[in-house]
Amino acid sequence: MISTTFAQIALGFRNWKLEDTSYYLQGYIMLEYDGLVVNWRSKVENDHVRPTTVVHHLLADETTDNWQRGLDGVTQYPANKWDAYIRVMPHSEHPSGSACICTAVMKWSAYALRVGYDEQFPLTYNHPMNSNRFERRLPTVAFNSMYSSHKEVADKCGRTRIDGGMHFEASVVAGGKSISL
User: Tens digit of pLDDT for each residue in 42-59?
Assistant: First the structure.
């Protein structure tokens, strides 16, 4: 679950007392809820199409190079058959709700830890073998993701929405700006 992963990265697996953990989780839940309420209103007002719609209609029968799930590589097929790496939600693309959550959680985590959002604060997350939710056989070797600050985690989290084909860059930027602490 994304929330569990975020909390683990954000807190650096701290050994907090029950009260500290409760305080953190209450703020986390409130930010997630409030951020998405604000974000959803903006989605309704903007009503932008998703990258999949644009690719299907603008590139239509052109052949494109695409990552092929299950093949560990790129293959070619018509653009009108292209799909994002993970499921694309059937609602407006702009702004990104995921980028909103990424930013909100990392800002809240930095605040809870009493460090600056973009202050040097090394964070590490372990990716065990076969831990990918979408392709269970990946990664084939365990590895660590290293981040220098909470802001870097939020930025990379938002970037995954672009790389995965769910959002355009402007939507991710807007999503990250849609909530403040």
Answer: 888 888 888 888 888 888
Per-residue burial over 138-154, b if 16 or more Cβ lie within 10 Å, else e, is beeeeeeeebebbbbbb
Residue 1 in this model has a pLDDT that exceeds 60: no
Rounded Cα gap, residues 32 and 179, in angstroms: 10
- Listed in sequence order, the residues at least 6 apart from 16 whose beta carbon sits closer than 8 Å to its beta carbon are 24
pLDDT at 116 over 60: yes
In the chain, domain spans? 2-50+88-120+153-177
Q: Three-state DSSP class for 115?
A: coil
Helices 2-11/150-163 angle, 10° precision: 150
